[in-house]
Amino acid sequence: MKMRLLPILVSLVLPTMALGAGPIYWDWPADRSFDELELSGAAIDEAGHLAAGLAFLLVGAGLQSSGAVEMLVGWVAPWLQGLPNWALILAVYLIAGVLTELVSNNAVAVIMTPVATGLAQTMGVDARPLVVAVMFAASAAFATPIGYQTNTLVYGPGGYRFSDFLRVGVPLNILMAITVTCIVPLIWPL
User: Fold this and answer.
1) 60 near 113, Cβ under 8 Å?
2) Most buried of 81, 133, 174, 176, CB within 10 angstroms?
């Protein structure tokens, strides 16, 4: 079990670290100190976006080829067997929603999309509603200042506390979860 876990960890951790440090390293002038880092994102040019996109594709391919997707689906599927369709969509939304509060929304989308499609195949349902649930959940990082870049940007200068994000963000996340769970099956039935 430990030997199977190592390639999975390497395929997740190294590209994630490269995505985080890559744009800073590639565009960082040698005569500037780290204290002069500007959080506007202006240093990331088209090549940085292309590199990030390719890195995310590599992470997704690595998850698929390493067997991580099958392993994650194997862990989650028994808990979700027999749930009504709305509850299955809600469960996928909640998993992705919790992850997106802790990790980049792009990383959550890359990690959870193959898991959602694998889960749909295992359970014999259409994958589109689950992928759409992942898409919405990955874009709804309201409850933490680390969930999305703009949250982080306003956190310090705005004088916010972590609890401020929780107080406003958790109700927004609950509202989004209910809305997605009700609307998605109407447009994309399982």
Assistant:
1) yes
2) 133
d(CA 79, CA 91): 10
What pLDDT digit, counting tens, does each position of 86-145 carry? Answer: 999 999 999 999 988 988 888 888 888 888 888 898 888 999 999 999 999 999 989 988
Phi-psi region of 134 (alpha: psi -120 to 50; beta: other; left: phi over 0): alpha
Tell me which amino acid residue 84 is: P
Pair of tokens at residue 126: 């259409």
pTM assigned to the model: 0.67
Contacts of 147-150 with CB under 8 Å at 24 or more apart are 147/100, 147/101, 147/102, 147/105, 148/105, 149/41
Helices (H), the chain: 2-26, 46-66, 68-80, 85-100, 105-123, 128-138, 149-155, 162-187
Compute CA distances 139 → 79, 88, 109, 129, 173, whole Å.
25, 19, 9, 15, 10
For tokens 């980049």, what's the residue? 104
Is the pLDDT score of 42 beyond 60? no
